[in-house]
Request: fold
Amino acid sequence: MSDHPTTYVPQSALAKWFESRLPVMGLLHSSFVAFPVPRNLNYFWTFGAVLFFMLISQIVTGIVLAMHYTPHADYAFQSVEHIMRDVNYGWLLRYLHANGASMFFVAVYIHIFRGLYYGSYKAPREVLWILGVIILLLMMATAFMGYVLPWGQMSFWGATVITNLFSAIPVVGEGIVHFLWGGFSVGNPTLNRFFSLHYLLPFMILGVAMLHVWALHVPGNNNPTGVPIKSGKDAVPFHPYMTVKDAFSLVLFLILFSWFVFYMPNYLGHADNYIPANPSVTPAHIVPEWYFLPFYAILRAIPDKLGGVIAMFASIAILAFLPWLDTSKVRSAAYRPLYRIFSWVFVLCAIGLGYLGAMPAEGGYVIASRLLTAYYFAHFLIIIPLLGLFETPKPLPNSIVESVLGKAGSGSGLPTGAAAEPQTKG
Reply:
């Protein structure tokens, strides 16, 4: 997993025997103990550990919940109520799993923003970034299918609306919809398909996450300056420096997670999902979970159905092309004044789209959605490429140590271009 040689030395005869045949401990030691990391990493870099913890938590709670869940349209809703009322600590398992999905997306959106802000998608980390986009897509598919399983009103109609979107695809669209439904309407075959995929996809996410970690360990971590490690003084071992920082961040994150689980477990859900699914009664306002709302707003902003579907998927797929859209040789927004401003404007745009996605698709809400959708794509296709050509970045520090000591941007003795050039190599 790591290109760095291991310094692991087995202490017992059994450990030496095992290591000579399957060097797992040496691999783990070189990847998560002795692995060198930049000494200036801040707490934005701890969300990878938070995400890994949340993934394992979701898999474990999901497996136990699946033992009590009945994937049948006639019994699914009652089986969820059975879990809540009759299974020992079933209410805790369900609230951990349901709110865990939301916490998972909170962490992943912060993780993505850190990558955008500090340029972690730039060479040689393109494959690392693309694997992250694939994980995001798998997460969204898993979360959507999981939202359908309680078989409440919002689950049923959410499945109906979202699966119907595929009918906009020319030629094959209707066939895809009927395959997802397992018939000519959302029903029991649909629920069985979604349950099977919801159980399978987390293990696919775990596999891609392992590749993601592997791809990270080849070039090593980016850092807030974007300057590569140039000497031993620029780096520290992963343990104990990052493990302590990761642990502290995880504890704070778990406090927030616990607050939702124990004090407001239904705050992020929808009341209509506590009503059994009824194909004859359409809810007054169909909305997805909060973490889908920005993309839902983009979908509804386009008046054409096929155009809306293309725009929604393109809003995610465009992230994979970011390493080639960004023309700047400087990674970090800390040294790019204009890019830093536009990064925070983009955050406000995403929050605004999230708000509009929860509003009715009418009047001023639609106009605002179209304006913010246009800005969303302009940020990636126009603003970022042009900033790389015309922005004048600040001088970079000669090394990570220099930035840690507070000398960033002064006394480098190099012009901006020369200081930025090493970033294309690490």
About this structure: Residues 408-426 have pLDDT under 50 and may be disordered. Strands lie at 36-38, 235-237. Residues 44-219+228-288 form a domain with the Cytochrome Bc1 Complex; Chain C fold (CATH 1.20.810.10).
